[in-house]
UniProtKB/TrEMBL annotation:
Binds 2 heme C groups per subunit. Its main location: periplasm. Component of the periplasmic nitrate reductase NapAB complex composed of NapA and NapB. Electron transfer subunit of the periplasmic nitrate reductase complex NapAB. Receives electrons from the membrane-anchored tetraheme c-type NapC protein and transfers these to NapA subunit, thus allowing electron flow between membrane and periplasm. Essential for periplasmic nitrate reduction with nitrate as the terminal electron acceptor. This is Periplasmic nitrate reductase, electron transfer subunit. Heme c 1 binds at residues 68, 82, 85-86.
């Protein structure tokens, strides 16, 4: 009985080792979605080109659409690249629209010198404008 358990344990150990070697060999063939090696630097465009025309808002109080790509913008708990152009302190010199003053109010309505944490993730309300066909038929009519 002990011999069968020992043989089973050795067999399982050998299979795990072989599987680990196979995974390690495949790891060298993983390709990045960016098309370059993971440790290779990918430069970003310094200025974003605005689309020719801005789309009208479909309803009152709709957050404005973003008229440029945000694919390579870092927006996470550590950084928000939108603020490099749209923060009130730099928007004038960058020629970008300034954030609404509501973005500088905390939950209690107190005025802050920096963007409130509740408004930090721009893409939870704002999305890039895209001239694309709708995914499903839609009878939505914008408000007048």
């Amino acid at each position: 009985m002990k011999t069968i358990r020992l043989i089973s344990a050795l067999t399982i150990g050998a299979l795990v080792a072989i599987g680990g070697i196979a995974v390690a060999q495949q790891a060298g063939t993983v390709k990045s979605l960016r098309g370059v090696q993971v440790d290779e630097y990918v430069p970003l465009e310094s200025n974003h080109k605005q689309d020719e025309k801005r789309f009208p808002r479909a309803y009152r109080q709709q957050p404005p659409l973003i008229p440029h790509s945000i694919e390579q913008h870092q927006i996470d708990r550590n950084a928000n690249e939108c603020l490099a152009c749209h923060d009130w302190s730099v928007a004038g010199e960058r020629g970008a629209p300034t954030l609404s003053m509501t973005h500088y109010l905390d939950r209690d309505g107190n005025q802050l010198d920096q963007v409130a944490g509740t408004r930090w993730f721009c893409n939870q309300c704002h999305v890039p404008q895209v001239d694309a066909l709708p995914l499903v038929d839609n009878t939505f009519e914008p408000s007048k």
